[in-house]
Write a structure and sequence with these properties.
Its EC number is 3.5.1.-. It comes from Paraburkholderia phenoliruptrix. InterPro entries: AstE_AspA_cat, N-alpha-Ac-DABA_deacetylase. By secondary structure, this protein is an alpha+beta fold. The chain folds into two domains: about 280 residues, Aminopeptidase (3-Layer(aba) Sandwich), CATH 3.40.630.10; about 70 residues, Beta Barrel (OB fold (Dihydrolipoamide Acetyltransferase, E2P)). The chain is about 25% helix and about 25% strand. A nine-stranded mixed sheet has the order 1-2-4-3-7-11-9-10-12, with helices on both faces. Strands 8, 13, 15, 18 and 20 form a five-stranded antiparallel sheet that branches. A four-stranded antiparallel sheet has the order 17-16-14-19, with no helix packed on it. Strand 5 and strand 6 form a beta hairpin. The longest helix has 19 residues. The two termini are about 40 Å apart. Bound molecules: zinc ion. Zinc ion binds next to loops.
Length: about 350
């Protein structure tokens, strides 16, 4: 295992943070990139990275890593110390309210300058594109600590074949976001993880990490057509490892085992490929999900568990008004998986409370 340190832009005199990346194996045909807790308060992902470090070190000593694996266990050192009145706030930079997982540098803007350089050699094109990505990212000079964090993460991941961004939700079962063209390669991961929800889309919420990387490869393939073939580039996914309080050794070991099984299936780790478990629910289209809001303020009482399949008309939650004898039951408008809900038990009027998956993707 090699440890690499990347200093971030110093935000104030006397202050300097760094990003730590661990690499296992040697550069070879395949590169895998994994990062945990870009939203710094999403700790289930961080504990999985601890388990993965142990597994990868054992596998490396046994000579069973057949490519290079880069692991960033703490992808957001900036907001690790953002606490307000006892609450850990890790998703947004408090000074600017920017979400750490939005508006990554738009790699898609580089397509027009790279496309003329390509030939009819697909493997050569792949190498050329990856070099161009690294060089263009190096040319950017980040002005802020926030920007330097995003650019460092992007540079570490941009030339990987498989990119997994490990997060968690509020209260949830395991679920995965990826783009439509990447689903074929991510589906085995969903099976090994026992993911109950797989959300496919080409645009999620404005420049997330996986969307930025997966979207670039979609765009360059679309522009180049058949005249300039390109070997498979990166497949990227965001993996939500349950809810923010689901921090346990049992879950973390299970998730790390599933990721190792997936990398074995992909040929990055040498070993017997485990049989693929069934996919628990089909992939669905992200933009057909249904969101459910509180019709008025009150106490939230959940009536459905996360990760369960609900039918149209099934009760999801009650909102109980403690001053006016009024209880409103919110029911599902569709058949789908109740895949996430807020970690609150009192709602303001109109607040989003939970989501149910929509139409199957195929
Ligand atoms: Zn997150």
């Amino acid at each position: 295992m090699k440890r690499h340190k990347f200093p971030l832009v110093s935000p104030a005199v006397g202050t300097q943070r760094e990003l730590v990346a661990l690499t296992f194996g040697e550069p070879a045909e395949k590169k895998v990139y994994l990062q945990s807790s870009l939203h710094a308060d999403e700790i289930p992902a961080m504990l999985v990275s601890v388990m993965l470090q142990q597994r990868f070190q054992e596998l490396e000593k046994a000579g069973k890593i057949k490519g290079e694996i880069t692991l960033v266990p703490v992808a957001n050192p900036i907001s690790l110390n953002q606490h307000l009145l006892g609450q850990f706030l890790g998703c947004f930079e408090m000074n600017t309210s920017r979400n750490f997982n939005r508006r990554f540098y738009p790699l898609g803007n580089l397509v027009s300058s790279i496309e003329p350089l390509l030939s009819n050699d697909s493997a050569g094109n792949l190498n050329l594109i990856r070099s161009a990505l690294r060089e263009n990212i190096d040319l950017e000079v980040p002005a802020t600590e926030f920007d330097s964090l995003q650019m460092t993460l992007l540079k570490l991941a941009c030339d990987a074949d498989i990119v997994l961004d490990l997060h968690c939700s509020l209260e949830a079962d395991v679920h995965i976001y990826t783009n439509t063209s990447g689903w074929r390669q991510i589906e085995p991961l969903a099976r090994y993880l026992g993911s109950t929800t797989q959300l496919l889309g080409d645009e999620f919420e404005g420049g997330t990490f996986d969307e930025t990387i997966g979207g670039f490869w979609n765009e360059i393939r679309n522009q180049c057509g058949v005249s300039k073939p390109i070997s498979d580039g990166s497949v990227a996914a965001t993996v939500e490892l349950r809810g923010e309080r689901d921090v346990s050794y049992a879950y973390a070991r299970r998730d790390a085992d599933a990721i190792v099984d997936y990398l074995t299936y992909q040929g990055v780790i040498e070993g017997d490929v485990k049989p693929l478990p069934p996919l628990l629910h089909p992939a669905t289209l992200w933009d057909s999900r249904e969101e459910y809001n509180a019709p008025h303020s009150g106490i939230v009482v959940y009536l459905s568990k996360v990760g369960t399949l609900v039918e149209e008309g099934d009760s999801l939650f009650d909102i109980v008004d403690p001053l006016d004898e009024r209880t409103t039951t919110v029911k599902s408008r569709t058949r789908g998986v109740f895949y996430m809900r807020r970690a609150i038990r009192f709602a303001t009027a109109g607040a989003e409370i939970g989501r149910v998956t929509g139409r199957p993707a195929v």
